[in-house]
Every structure is written in structure tokens, then in C-alpha cells.
Amino acid sequence: MCGIVGFCSNRETELNATEILIDCLSKLEYRGYDSAGIALINKNDLEIRKAKGRLSNLENLIEKSPVEGHLGIGHTRWATHGEPSDINSHPHTDVSNDIAVVHNGIIENHAKLREWLEKHNVVFRSETDTECVAHLIDFHYNGDLLLAVTEALKRLEGSYALAVVCKSDPESIVVAKKDCPLIIGRADDFNLIASDVTPLLEYTREVQYLEDNQVAKITCDNVEIFDEDNILRDVEISHVDWDMQSAQKNGFEHFMLKEICEQPYALEQTYKARVYGGKLDLGEMSEFVKEAKKVVIVGCGTAYHAGVVAKYAIEHYARIPVEVDVASEFRYRDPIINSDDLCIVISQSGETADTLQAMRIFKTKGAKIIAITNVVGSTVSREADYVMYTQAGPEIAVASTKAFTTQLMCVYLLTCALIKDEEKSIELMNELKDIPQKAQTIVDRQEEIQRFASNQFNKSKVFYFGRQSDFAISLESALKLKEINYTHSEAFAAGELKHGPIALVDENTLVVASCCNSKLYDKMDSNMKEVKARGAKVLAITFEKNDAFNSVADEIIPIPNTEAFLSPILSVIVTQLYAYYCSINRGNDPDHPRNLAKSVTVE
Ligand code: F6R
User: Fold this and answer.
1) CB-hemisphere CA count at 13 Å for 240?
2) Phi-psi region at 96: left, alpha or beta (left = phi > 0; alpha = psi -120 to 50)
3) DSSP letters of 23-63?
4) Measured from the CB, is residue 600 less than 6 Å from ligand 1?
5) Which atom of ligand 1 is least distant from the CA of 349?
6) Phi, psi (deg, nearest 5) at residue 267
7) What is the rounded distance in angstroms from the CA atom of residue 267 to the CA atom of residue 516?
């Protein structure tokens, strides 16, 4: 939610700070696109450009009213406090426009601070929570920006990644972080900051991860990081070896399609990262995993759905009870966690606010945590006891695809480790080995799925149903369609249909039936007949050569044979492609769905 960037070079630089800030923002637009803005120190002046809407609006504004400088900060917004508008766009400034601030997060006590500042004659311009930060810093400013920010932070409640520049301190950017990510990029003649690693890769691969409650002063040739007691900290510089290419569209029309098509490769990489010479290697976590008596999984959205798929698989193969919950519910339900429970946190970004809080609850219960995440150096990866990285590479499209299937690969590999019978575990691992190539056969069928979508994209209701892990994957399939096609889509356990949802079914309904468990084919056949009798069209997703649904389904999209409990990793690729092509048919931008941002760092 919201992306912040900063760039700091010296006055003799040939580099164009405006261009660099805009370039970095373009890679963070997935975090929000309600507005964008930059603040630059130009000679000894502070200049701001900001505009409602996509980054291109800001670029148009800068074309008409150019701005340059050697140092600056930028922001792309996902609105929380105050509607998307020019005035609510960041950067926000103090009364005399000397100090500019960009912010990701929520200042929870902003109303009280606003009241207090208004009593001190501050006149607010925007409705945002962020503006009070600019005024507070000004209140504490006495010639030392770092000190002013440190003092202001003491009065803030909530979450923040902040970058601050000041006209009277024209050679530095001060940044601070609590519960929102902030990464510093170290280059030879300049330094940068950003909300995630991707924008930095163009300029450097050497990064420092700011910790919560740290504050840093960044100049063109130095970075000083202080902890909350104002003690200078030596923070390790990490090397990022992500491939820059993977953050580009590479000829695809959208990141989402590119990322769907990358799944076979990403799945292979994720498998290979843990299986060598046919042997599963979970490193340090192996012993702990083997001892598990109960598994508890949390995540949000798509990551939660990976947890639901995991529950079915782990309980079926390893016969260990699994509890799975959405992180935002888990954290408020006074959960019962024992110190020997195996706790799994799933998060693509590793920065989702609710997931982080749920993870911290695991910690307070003394439990050990395995994080499944895509982002090296993310908060989740740093706070968990063990990490399994999904080898998906940067996922840029807001709607998650390759992160999800690689999360599934990780949970299936963990399932192999949890199975007590070695032979069975090896069998499952061998089955997993073939998944990437099977995924490729679905990607290769995309024209067929595209054709189906172009006939069915304007159905007013789309219901996804299935039983067992087919139900689990229906949840994710329905979410994908909601996100990028804005269609009312729901997932139901097929057996639940008669208990209410069938009242919604009419001739304007498409039902997507996932049917990959042969023991339940008969039941699914009946359920399909029930919805067809009410006028619905039925698309069945089932294994190739299965003719059980030929007479009932209007359309069948086959997937390669595999174990029933592994089928979600394949069937979801069909529904991802279906959602993508529906969205294209509607004229939507699947990479930038309305009202959404990729990284949800607020509650
Ligand atoms: C849906 C989607 C979201 C995320 C959720 C959690 O396509 O991307 O539902 O899965 O916001 O995000 P992470 O995995 O970053 O914790």
C-alpha cells in the first residue's frame, strides 16, 4: 500500500533525479495508483509536483512544468485517509513548504495530532494522516533534520515508512520505518531508497534493510543508521541476485500474463531449491518439521488459499491435523497455540500487516515459525525461525499467480517432509517433479481458454465449486475473477450448494466445476446437473481422458493427470488464464485492478 522512493546524489551529478524517481515509482505502481508525486531539492529550493491518478498524469505534469534537482523523494498512493485527489497526494509539506514527507502506512493517532497542531496555528491543506507528520517535523526542527524526525517519531502511533527532505538541509534524506518496508540501495556515487527491492535493481544490487524503529540519514556518499536509542548501527549490506529481466514485461502485454506463463519455470526452480538428487533437503528446519504434531497456517487472500490447499494435502498424506486461518481473523481470536506446533506463515511480499501480527502471536506462544515468502529480506523472512523461499522472482501484477503456485509447491514439499512413511514421501516428491512440465501443457492451451473467455466474459455471476482440494482451489479461482474482472464470483463447497447458494443460480450464471477427485465424480456430476437444471452454463476442469462429465458439462478444459490433492497447482492455471482473458475482453487493465494494491501494509 503506497510506495515510497528517494534518490540522493551530489550537485555535480549528471544523473537526472526526476527521471530516476519516476522510473523507481513506475516499478512500485503496483502498490497503489490513486496518485503520484515527487519533491526535489533544486539548488536550495524545494519543488513539488503531484497529480491524482496514474503515474502517467504526473509525467504529463512534469512535461508541462519540468523540475530537476540532485536529490528527491517520491510516492505512489493507495488512498486510506482522504479521497484520491491532487491535494491529498504526497509529498506533503509543512506550513512554509520547507519540509516534504512521503509516507507508506497509517498514522493511527492522526486526529489527535491534527487537533494539537491546529491549536498551534497549523492550517491543514489535506485530509491525510501524513500531513501531520510534516508539521510535527517542522515543529521539532531546529537546524537538524535527523533530530527533528527522531523527535516527531516519538509522537506517532501506527505504521510508517517515511522519507523526508528539507530545504535547509539540501544534501540529505532522512528515512524511518515501523511495520512498513524500507530498503536502502547503495551505489558508488549516489544512494537510493524504496519500499521494495525491485526499483533499486536498475541502479544497484547492494542493499540494506532498515529495521523497525530505525532512522537513517542518507547522503550521496554515506548512510548512517540509528536505532531507537540514537545509537549508530552497523547494518549489513546484502547482495540481491534477482534477475532484472524478471521485473520487465519482456514482450508480454501485461505482467499478469507474463507471470502466468512463467509458472512452469518458477515451479521448477522452487522444487530444485529443495530437492537434490531425489532427496528433499529442508536444511535446519528438517528435524523440527519431523516432530510436528499439529500444523497452524496463516496468510491473507491468495496466500490464505495456499494454506487451505495445504490443509487438505497435509491431513490426507501426513495424517497431521492442520488449522488454517486468515491472518486478520487469527490475530483477534485468542488462538490456542502450543510451543511445539509447526506454525507456517505464507506471504508473497513478506510485509502484509495482518500476517506479520499473526506471526508475532505465534512468537509470543513460543512456537517456531516457517515463513513461505517470495521476497528475500522481507520482514517475514527476517522474523521467522526458518524460511522457504518461493523462487518466483519479482511478482509485479497485483493479482497473484506465480507466487501462489510456488507457495503450493513449498507446502507440498513440506507435506513430503511431514509424511512418516519414506516410500510414500518419495512417491509424492516424484509426482511433484513432473508438475512444472504439466503446468507448461496448460500454459500452452491458453488460446482455448482465451476463446472460452471471449464467449463467457460478461456473465453477471460466476460460481466456482468443488469438493475437498477442488473446493480449496475454487476459493482462489473466484478471487482472481473478482480482482481483475469485477464480476460477482463466489466459491462454494459443492455439497453446500443445496443449502442456500443454489437460489442465486439462473441463466446468467457460469459455474466452473473443479473435478479432480475420482472418488467424488458422481457427486460432482449431480451438482452440475442441479445447476444446469436452473439454467447455468457449466465449465468442468478435470483430468485429461476423463469422460465422466462429457454429457453434463457445456465445456471441459482438461488438465494433465496427477494426484487429486496436487491438482490445485494445475487447475488454478486454467482459472488464472480465464480471469486474465475475461478482464482483457472487458477492457480492464489486469495489472492495475481498481481499488487494490499489491502489498497490504495497513490493517
Ligand atoms: C490476490 C492477492 C492478495 C494477496 C494478499 C496477501 O491476488 O495478491 O490476496 O495474496 O494481499 O499478500 P502477501 O502474500 O504479500 O502477504
Assistant:
1) 29
2) alpha
3) HHHHTTGGG--SEEEEEEEETTEEEEEEEESSHHHHHHHHH
4) yes
5) 15
6) -65, -40
7) 20
Which of the listed residues 198, 300, 372 should we mutate to test ligand 1's pocket, taking the one with most ligand atoms within 8 A of CB?
A: 300
Q: Specify whether the CB–CB gap between 321 and 338 falls below 8 A.
A: no
Strands 99-107 and 92-93: antiparallel
| Letter string b/e over residues 92-128, b meaning 16 or more CB atoms within 10 A of that residue's CB | bbbbeebbbbbbbbbbeebeebbebbeeeebeeebeb
**Beta-sheet pairing, 215-218 with 223-226:** antiparallel
User: What three-state secondary structure class fits 406?
Assistant: helix
Q: Kindly report the protein residue whose alpha carbon is nearest to atom 5 of ligand 1.
A: 301
What's the gap in Å between 300 CA and the centre of ligand 1?
6
Task: Give the Cα separation of 561 and 518 in Å (integer).
Answer: 11
Q: What DSSP assignment string belongs to 192-217?
A: EEESSSGGGTTT-SEEEEPPTT-EEE
Q: Which grid cell sits at 129?
A: 494522516
The widest CA-to-CA distance across the chain, in whole angstroms, is 79
- The pLDDT assigned to 458 comes to 81
52, 177, 178, 598: the catalytic one is 598
Q: What's at 19, amino acid-wise?
A: E
**Cβ of residue 185 lying under 6 Å from some atom of ligand 1:** no
158 in helix, strand or coil? strand
Asked if residue 18 has its Cβ within 6 Å of ligand 1, the reply is no
Determine if ligand 1 sits within 6 Å of the CB of residue 76. Answer: no
**How would you label 530-541 residue by residue, b for 16+ Cβ within 10 Å and e otherwise?**
bbbeeebbbbbb
Is 598 an annotated catalytic residue? yes
- What pairing do the DSSP bridges indicate for beta strands 35-42 and 71-77? antiparallel
**180 annotated active-site:** no
User: Tell me, what amino acid is at 483?
Assistant: E
The grid coordinates listed for 308 are: 487451505
Locate the DSSP E strands across 352-460. Answer: 368-373, 386-389
Ligand 1 within 6 A of CB of 552: no
| Cell numbers linked to 108 | 493511527
Q: How far is the centre of ligand 1, averaged over its atoms, from the C-alpha of 400 (Å)? A: 6
d(CA 252, CA 257) in angstroms, rounded, equals 7
Any atom of ligand 1 within 6 Å of the Cβ of 355? yes
Q: Which residues of the chain have pLDDT under 70?
A: 1, 243-247, 601-603
Contact 110, 116 (CB under 8 A): no
pLDDT of residue 245: 64
Site to probe by mutation for ligand 1, drawn from 325, 329, 400, 485 as the one with most ligand atoms within 8 Å of Cβ, is 400
- Beta-strand (E) ranges in 188-312? 191-194, 206-209, 215-218, 223-226, 232-233, 238-239, 275-276, 279-280, 295-299
CB 58 within 8 A of CB 102: no
Q: Which three cell numbers stand for residue 103?
A: 509516507
Residue 348: CB within 6 Å of ligand 1? yes
Q: Which helix (H) or strand (E) holds 466?
A: strand 461-466
Inter-residue contact 297 to 313 (CB < 8 Å): no
Distance CA(332)–CA(309), nearest Å, equals 23
318: left (phi over 0), alpha (psi -120 to 50) or beta: alpha
